[in-house]
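# step 3/5: fold
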Amino acid sequence: MPPERLATLLARRERQALYRFDLRLQGEDETIFLDFPYERAPYEPRPSGVSAAEPLGTEAGQIQR
């Protein structure tokens, strides 16, 4: 990866203890996105009415297959 493209993934120091990261979707200095292959099951949405705070696999949040 060219160093100038890698720089789009790094936060820049503004002042002590403050960093800024700009996500640019197009144009000059467009942020590069990386795609890592994985062997994980595809995303499954939570069933209707199940809170994001509720762990899946409990009786109330069991996913039906």
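# step 4/5: annotate
The first strand starts at residue 12 and ends at 15.
# step 5/5: archive (pending)
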